[in-house]
Amino acid sequence: IISHAFYLAVEGGTNQTSGMVVDGVGSANRGQIERAFYRAFVYLLTSDASFVEARDATIQSARDLFGEQSAALRAIAQSWTAVGIR
Fold first, then answer.
1. How far apart are CA 67 and CA 63, in angstroms?
2. Between the CA atoms of 10, 11, 15 and 21, what dihedral angle is there, to the nearest 10 degrees?
3. With helix as H, strand as E and coil as C, how does the chain read?
């Protein structure tokens, strides 16, 4: 689930289960998604975190790093929703 959310946030596409379309940031901006996920998983989450907590932490990381209106934040939020984590 996490790796598919990451992939969708970068590359975009349609989740086959939900049918939701994600506008990814593109491979040229992959580093933004990597930074947001790394920051969330290393500094913001505990070892027993849930998927919902992971979603919230990666969204918060994108917000902190790139701003409220950033493409990275939008892509991460969309990707988690597409994989069924709300």
1. 5
2. 90
3. CHHHHHHHHHHCEECCCCCCEECCCCHHHHHHHHHHHHHHHHHHCCCCCCHHHHHHHHHHHHHHHHCCCCHHHHHHHHHHHHCCCC
pLDDT (tens digit, 9 = 90+) per residue, 5-58?
Answer: 999 999 999 999 999 999 999 999 999 999 999 999 999 999 999 999 999 999
CA dihedral 29, 32, 34, 35 (to 10 degrees): 150
Distance, in Å, from the CA atom of 35 to the CA atom of 17, rounded to the nearest integer, reads 27
For the record, the structure tokens of 22 come out as 């994600």
How do 21-22 and 13-14 pair as beta strands? antiparallel
